[in-house]
Design a protein that fits this description.
The complex is a heterotrimer. By secondary structure, chain A is an all-alpha fold. Chain B is mostly helical. Chain B has one domain: ABC transporter involved in vitamin B12 uptake, BtuC, CATH 1.10.3470. Chain B is built from eleven helices and no strands. In chain B, helix 1 runs antiparallel to helix 10, helix 2 crosses helix 8 and helix 3 crosses helix 8. Chain C is of the alpha/beta class. Chain C folds into two domains: about 230 residues, 3-Layer(aba) Sandwich (Rossmann fold); about 140 residues, Rossmann fold, CATH 3.40.50.2300. Helices cover about 40% and strands about 15% of the residues of chain C. Chain C has twelve helices and 14 strands. In chain C, helix 6 links the parallel strand 6 and strand 7. In chain C, helix 8 runs parallel beside helix 9. Classes of the chains: A mainly alpha, B mainly alpha, C alpha/beta. Chains in contact: A-B, A-C, B-C. At the A-C interface, helix 3 and helix 13 of A face helix 1, helix 3, helix 4 and helix 6 of C.
Chain lengths: ~375, ~290, ~400
């Protein structure tokens, strides 16, 4: 897997772009006080979904993008987080915010445990093992032994939380801020993790596991921790989704969900934190777009059939693999580099041509 | 005791289905070193083509043959057009590609032929051979055809030059090129053959499970388990693996954990085999050089 | 609750905006809710058009085709139907998102025939909190007719629970020393039918009735075959078989039962009772004597061809859904639902508010709907939110379902 320039990951301070982004996101709910449209709460809900998917994709990215372990089964961890949150709220009466740390801990444990057998698996085989996990999960959730807690096939209906007393926000605005806070926290944590030794270790393992091992990195430990942390992030996203959708059922967590996360990751950009946000936004918006494209195609080409949205996703995925394998974020980086080169061509220094050669290839 | 034998017989018959699908998976793996997640959907799509031909009035065996030919070229085309540009891409890109193909085939089949369950004819006479109706003639036919395919493949890979060239191209493309093997075309050929095998598997399976776009979805995971258990590089192993998985699934489901955990069993099988004995029961261990 | 202030402001503002439209009682009251104009009524719907459950998506297309016919005929009371049907892929979180989109962004008047138990459960509370009609939900689950707690949600089809109950009663009455084996799909439909059946058994035999159940075998939709389960069930020596499956597995089960020589009293759920899609592939000779309960005319059974409503349905299919598969029962289900909705809209006249929609939906008296089995009428009232409560038992004789006995109606 090709390494990408991570200047934002090695900078000493927090990237200004990131700060601007989060501040911008924090101002969006305030629009509701000046724009009195009935659809505003709906947009807040969409914003929550985007943040939740962004966190889930971030979890997957930590494992696949930064550590090179392919997972087609992250829907399982999302489901685990969602059900932990739902059961704690439903059965044990926990407040919604307390379920997040619980989901985080349990999912970390589950991911860490799955990481052990995953140690021996690479590439296709790991994809296959995680694929099987994703397929097995819905049936597991319906098992009669745990129906008492999980609600079985009918799932669990939850109460959507209200804003705390005195806060002049609608429930959706408040939940948006809640999701935003959690997302900002998790992205900041990921950023720090990747900047530090753990992150570099993970990326070294991704780029050349054998070399990393010879450098003294405990690959087994790092890889299982990567699985655990990745599951933690995606599990917290699942818990948030249980809170915002206020309903969990086995039907919500099929193989398709895992495929969605993979699609979001690939579209947003592997090993790119901003890419996770792009992926999250893409996932939420794309279904509506696929429907529109389908309608447009049917009309324009006078087709007898509705073009199915999954066919459109498939084609989009394929096109991305050829044209933008590093995703939208990667494409933006390449664009930035291309623009930078156009604006400031390097002045060739006769004494050290080799250095300049290295510079231009690194920037690819 | 009789019930036990019945469950084993039922396991063998579903095992034959898994063996058939596993053969196609092994084919792709042996010729391209990839695991094709879209194998099931491609097989299903080919079966729909066969169904359409039969509906148009074409006799069964002619449709059967035509479908095999279409599928062969279809597989070839997929490798040439879609996969070749990604030859040097990282594994994840390929996995994404396969998932994309899976989605596209499934969606298009549903769009063109709808999701209503259809009947697919069987070339074998109806009725059962073994007393008690345990095993129908068709199911025995499935086993027979699978064995024949296995035989052809084994002979092909071991005793023909082309088969040898294909194996070489998959295992060591650089050296194979030096020997004059046109590696790219070997990969394409592998895909073509795998698509044909998949078509046969689909056409054999459809009379039993009925034809609908979701037909292969459940079978695929057991097919993977079967291929892994038997050794993913080994066609004979895959067939044996299919029977083993079928019987195991039935016995464990009946006596041990109930029918509600069969998929979990498949998951555990896959994970255990991959971690404990990745070469499967009959496969050969490969050592990677640094 | 702290959030009332903001909502009240919005509601207040919109009421003010609507004020000019609410004419005084002298002239005809033309009252419009959201999504209604003099020429259009906007209706929302979610069904799975993609994913594992896409087979059910056909009902949405049937609705669209029906509304196209209505619009071609001039619409309802001069207004055309703008039917927005979105794909939720049978994923409850997606259903929530789309329901909110339709209600809050697209401002539809109501949601109609949303499909699936889990998807509908996900939006159940929301629709009632928002006071948006959640009409004629497309699921057989039995919890949708609860006007006291959920006054904005109304079911439609005879529910699975009732059907199961009816089969249990019939078995107890007609099979001496019943020993019961059950095959059920591992989903909400399977659970619902089973609950109804068990209730029927217990009401006939008391709580000990459960002992009559020899085994309940489950399967997943992803399972290739149910052969193993069928063998297990036969092995129990049961003489009653309750077959809770969807078409593909029903056909497999019927075929397998015949192959292994198991001939119990066989009860097949309505969901899988299609002649063309289940009985024929399984083999007519294998399916003789199977009992089911019908409320909708089986579109694959030529027996109905002499009935004018069936012929009208066929003409509609030919004109408005020429490429659709005429063997799919969804095309009749959608037709029936859409017809009923037209009746509700007609009754509303020019008062097209959400409240009046619910009032009229709860005011359907003895409605004769095309494509229903003869004798079945549709009835609703403010205390009865189950429009269709009757099913007619039928037995497979020869190549058709022969109705026998009387219409069985769920008590109110």
């Amino acid at each position: 897997m090709a390494a990408q320039p991570h200047s934002w990951a090695t900078k000493a301070g927090i990237g200004w772009g990131a700060l601007v982004f989060w501040l911008f996101m924090a101002t969006l709910p305030l629009i509701g006080f000046v724009w009195d449209d009935p659809s505003f709460d709906y947009w807040m809900f969409m914003g929550q979904s985007m943040l939740i998917y962004a966190i889930a994709v971030l979890g997957l990215n930590l494992l696949t993008g930064f550590n090179g372990q392919i997972s087609l089964g992250h829907g399982a961890f999302f489901a685990l987080g969602a059900y932990i949150a739902a059961i704690l709220m439903n059965d044990a009466g926990w407040p919604y915010w307390a379920t997040l740390p619980a989901a985080a801990v349990v999912c970390f444990g589950a991911g860490f445990l799955f990481g052990f057998p995953a140690l021996k698996l690479e590439g296709h085989y790991l994809a296959l093992a995680t694929f099987s996990l994703a397929i097995a999960v819905p049936q597991l959730l319906k098992h009669k032994a745990i129906t008492h807690w999980t609600g079985g096939v009918s799932g669990l209906v939850l109460e959507k939380p209200d804003p705390p007393f005195g806060v002049p926000l609608s429930p959706d605005q408040f939940l948006y801020y809640f999701c935003l806070g959690v997302a900002a926290l998790l992205f900041w944590a990921a950023f720090n993790l990747l900047r530090g030794r753990t992150g570099l270790g993970l990326m070294a393992i991704r780029d050349h596991a054998m070399a990393a091992a010879t450098m003294g990195i405990d690959t087994a430990l790092y890889k299982t921790i990567a699985f655990g942390i990745s599951a933690l992030f995606t599990g917290v996203a699942g818990a948030l989704s249980a809170i915002t959708v206020a309903y969990v059922a086995p039907d919500s967590f099929t193989l398709q969900l895992s495929v969605y996360f993979l699609v979001g990751l690939v579209v947003g950009g592997l090993s790119s934190l901003p890419g996770c946000i792009i992926g999250g936004v893409f996932l939420v918006l794309v279904q509506n777009t696929a429907q529109s494209i389908s309608n447009w195609a049917k009309g324009t080409f006078a087709l007898a059939y509705d073009v199915p949205p999954w066919a459109i996703y498939g084609v989009v995925l394929l096109l991305l693999m050829y044209l933008l394998p590093t995703g939208v974020a990667g494409g933006i980086t390449r664009l930035r580099v291309w623009v930078a080169r156009r604006l400031a061509p390097p002045v060739p220094r006769a004494s050290e041509p080799a250095v300049i050669q290295r510079q231009t290839t690194e920037a690819d | 005791m009789e019930f036990f034998i019945q469950q084993i017989a039922a396991g063998l018959t579903s095992g034959a289905i898994y063996a058939c699908v596993a053969l196609g998976l092994v084919m792709i793996f042996v010729s391209t070193d990839h695991i094709n997640f879209a194998q099931g959907e491609m097989a299903m799509f080919s079966t729909y083509l066969a169904w359409a031909l039969i509906q148009a009035g074409i006799p069964y065996w002619v449709a059967f043959g035509l479908t095999i030919v279409f599928s062969f070229f279809g597989g070839l085309l997929i490798q040439r057009v879609i996969l070749k540009p990604l030859e040097t891409a990282p594994v994840l890109s390929l996995v994404v590609c396969f998932i994309a193909l899976l989605s596209i085939f499934n969606a298009i089949a549903g769009m063109v032929w709808s999701y209503t369950v259809k009947q697919f004819p069987s070339p074998f006479p109806a009725g059962s051979m073994i007393a008690g109706g345990l095993v129908s003639q068709h199911q025995i036919g499935v086993v027979a055809v699978t064995m024949i395919m296995l035989g052809i493949l084994t002979v092909f890979f071991r005793y023909t030059t082309l088969g040898l060239a294909m194996r070489a191209a998959a295992q060591n493309p650089a050296s194979a090129r030096l020997m004059g093997v046109r590696v790219s075309w070997m990969l394409a050929l592998g895909w073509g053959l795998a698509a044909s095998i998949g078509a046969v598997a689909g056409m054999l399976v459809a009379p039993i499970v009925f034809l609908d776009p979701g037909m292969m979805a459940g079978i695929l995971i057991y097919g993977f388990a079967a291929a892994l258990v038997g050794g993913i590089g080994n066609p004979g192993g895959a067939v044996a693996g299919g029977f083993i998985v079928g019987v195991l699934e039935n016995l464990v489901g009946t006596y041990l954990i109930g029918n509600e955990l069969k998929l979990t069993l498949a998951l555990i099988l896959v994970v255990c085999v991959l971690t404990l004995k990745p070469a499967g029961l009959f496969g050969r261990v490969t050592v990677k050089r640094v | 609750m702290p959030n009332i202030t903001r909502r009240a402001t919005i509601l207040g503002a919109s009421t003010l905006a609507l004020a000019p439209l609410a004419r005084p009682a002298i002239a005809e009251a033309k009252k419009y809710g959201p999504g209604v104009t003099d020429t259009e009524i906007k209706i929302g719907n979610t069904v799975p058009y993609s994913g594992n459950a896409s087979a059910y998506g056909q009902v949405g297309r049937a609705h669209s085709a029906y509304f196209r016919m209505i619009n071609d005929q001039g619409g309802v009371n001069g207004r055309k139907i703008n039917y927005i049907s979105l794909d939720d892929g049978y994923s409850p979180p997606k259903t929530v998102e789309l329901a909110r989109q339709l209600v809050e962004r697209d401002q539809v008047l109501f949601l109609f025939a949303t499909l699936g138990t889990a998807p509908n459960t996900a939006i159940h509370k929301y629709m009632n909190q928002r006071k948006v009609p959640h009409l004629f939900v497309s699921t057989g689950a039995s919890k949708w007719g609860d006007p006291k707690h959920y006054p904005w949600t109304m079911g439609f089809a005879p529910d699975y629970h009732t059907e199961g109950y009816i089969y249990a009663q019939h078995a107890l009455k007609n099979v001496p020393n019943p020993k019961i084996a059950i095959l059920r799909q591992n989903d909400d439909m399977g659970v619902d039918y089973l609950d109804g059946f068990m209730e029927g058994i217990k009401s006939g035999l008391g709580p000990d009735g459960e002992k009559k159940i020899a085994q309940i075998a489950t399967y997943e939709v992803t399972d290739p075959t149910v052969d193993s389960q069928m063998l297990q069930l036969k092995n129990t020596g049961a003489n009653v078989f309750f077959n809770i499956t969807t078409p593909k597995f029903a056909a497999q089960a019927i075929k397998k039962a015949a192959e292994i020589g198991w001939k119990p009293a066989h009860y097949l759920v309505n969901v899988a009772a299609s002649i063309g899609v289940v009985i024929k592939p399984a083999g007519y000779e294998n399916a003789q004597g199977i009992i089911t309960a019908l409320y909708q005319k089986d579109v694959t059974d030529p027996f109905w061809e002499s009935y004018p409503d069936y012929r009208a349905w066929r003409e509609w299919m030919a004109k408005y859904q020429p490429t659709a598969n005429p063997m799919e029962s969804a095309n009749a289900t959608g037709y029936i639902q859409a017809f009923t909705l037209m009746q509700v809209l007609k009754q509303c006249g020019d008062e097209l508010t959400r409240e009046n929609i619910m009032r009229q939906a709860a005011n359907l008296k003895d409605l004769e709907v095309p494509m229903l089995v003869p004798g079945i009428r549709l009835n609703t009232s403010p205390t009865n939110f189950y429009p269709l409560r009757s099913v007619h038992p039928a037995r497979l004789e020869g190549e058709h379902w022969k109705l026998f006995g009387e219409l069985m109606t769920k008590a109110e």
